[in-house]
Specification:
This protein has 13 helices and no strands. By secondary structure, the protein is an all-alpha fold. It has one domain. Helix 7 packs antiparallel against helix 8 and helix 10 crosses helix 12. Keywords: Membrane, Transmembrane, Transmembrane helix.
Length: about 260
């Protein structure tokens, strides 16, 4: 497991180095969101931090950022599956795109459930405590269930129709503890650093805030790739355990693997 985690972080960095334009797309959107936050006074003091949390423009850009990270799921998975090939990451494979649309739709469902849940609950007149409880449950379910879909997401990006939603759950179920632990150990340290940067920036001099938000934008971009890489190593182990090739049946698989 330790070797797999090292691979996740190293190959994520390699993706950032070999696919800089793709890597910087979510980074740029994250930085735009920080610009909006800074102009709204989010990092002036704790009161500003709380007041700016519900800023409409900030939330809108946040949705755009998450969609950019969804696209990273396609680009980075292809990069990893096809042997760290930047050409495979950039290639628009019609079959892979068609297979990845349901993956993005699933991710969009969770985006709405988690990020927009409180707003929807408030509009529906649901009490704050109930809404908060539903949000916490949604987060936990997502955190524990998503690793089971690693093979589906990775195979879809590779253009392999042989591993669908249900088959991914069956394949990954046999290594479920490994899948959850790898996913959490890869994601949580960077997630903690992400929120820590925002909190530590409050009340600092403007130039420090700008520097920290620039660093945080790069961190978010890297975190997005790390989450994809964690899903990839889980998918690879699940597929190997089931005697299945992640790219079997994918058009151009041989070409991508040897490029």
């Amino acid at each position: 497991m330790g070797h797999d985690l090292i691979e996740v972080f190293v190959r994520s960095g390699r993706y950032a180095r070999l696919c800089p334009l793709l890597f910087l797309i979510p980074v740029a959107v994250e930085m735009v969101q920080h610009v909006v936050e800074i102009r709204a006074g989010m990092y002036v003091d704790l009161a500003g931090l709380k007041a700016a949390e519900g800023d409409a423009l900030r939330l809108t850009i946040g949705h755009v950022k998450v969609i950019a990270l969804f696209l990273t799921g396609y680009w980075a998975a292809r990069f990893l599956v096809f042997g760290d090939d930047p050409l495979a990451a950039r290639r628009i494979d019609p079959v892979a795109v068609r297979l990845f649309v349901p993956v993005m739709a699933w991710s969009l469902f969770w985006l709405i459930a988690v990020q927009d849940g409180p707003l929807i609950a408030d509009a529906a007149g649901i009490e704050g405590n109930v809404a908060a409880g539903v949000l916490i449950v949604s987060l936990l379910v997502s955190l524990l269930f998503e690793p089971l879909l690693s093979a589906w997401k990775t195979a879809a990006a590779a253009g392999n129709p042989g591993i669908g939603f249900v088959r991914s759950i069956r394949l990954t179920g046999g290594i479920y503890p490994y899948a959850v632990i790898v996913s959490l150990l890869a994601m949580l340290p960077l997630m903690v650093a992400h929120y820590a940067l925002a909190f530590v920036a409050v009340g600092k001099a403007p130039w420090i805030v700008w520097a920290m938000m620039g660093l945080d934008s790069l961190l978010v971009g890297y975190l997005g790739v790390v989450m994809v890489a964690a899903a990839f190593v889980v998918a690879r182990r699940a597929a190997a355990r089931g005697g299945i090739d992640l790219v079997a049946g994918a058009p151009g698989a041989a070409e991508g693997a040897t490029a």
